[in-house]
Amino acid sequence: MKKLFLILFIISLSASFAQEKGKMIIDEKNKKNMYVGIGDKSVFKDTSFSTWYGAEYDMYELDKKELEKITPEKLKDVKITIVLGTWCGDTKREIPRFMKILEAVKFDEMNLTMIFVDREKKSPSGDISQLGAKNIPAIILYRGEKELGRIIEAPKDTLEKDFTDLLK
């Protein structure tokens, strides 16, 4: 029994380190902090990002009528990958808004992957070229292995409308 527990513990420990977490580096262009790698919304709590993130998040008014269309059934098996840059103006505008939307619809953050990139769209967490994210932020929705669609840089209509359209 002890041996089985030890094996399970080692497997779970190695799985938790399988994806390299991100790190803070200095942006050579503006000499400010930039986060690169795999992260989550806790990255935005850093004082380097919290001012712009918090201001945009608080200011954004949700389209609650549009969000009512997003039922738990529509979110079933949905995974979201976001490629973003803490240095990018479009990221600074759209990602706090999108995170507010995800919280409003109670999206399971275990199904959200955030890949922070540098100005060359590279991440120390691995090659992201297969995602085809030439412009950021790139919000990519999947159901299972099938891509449902993307919101690139800015929504075509509104974030809420584009999100509901992709879930149809």
Mean pLDDT across the residues is 89
Strand content: 15-25%
Going by helix content, strand content and strand pairing, the class is: alpha+beta
Counting DSSP E segments of at least 2 residues, the number of strands comes to 6
Strand order of the largest sheet: 1-2-4-3-5-6
Give the helix tally: 6
- From the spread of the alpha carbons, the general shape counts as globular
Quaternary structure classification: single chain
Q: Which blocks of ≥5 consecutive residues have pLDDT under 50?
A: 1-18
Helix content: 25-40%
CATH class: Alpha Beta
Largest sheet: 6 strands, mixed
Please name the CATH topology. Glutaredoxin
State Rg.
Answer: 17 Å
Topology as a string of helices (H) and strands (E): HEEHHHEHEEEH
For the record, give the distance between the C-alpha atoms at the N and C termini, rounded to a whole number: 48 Å
The named CATH superfamily: Glutaredoxin
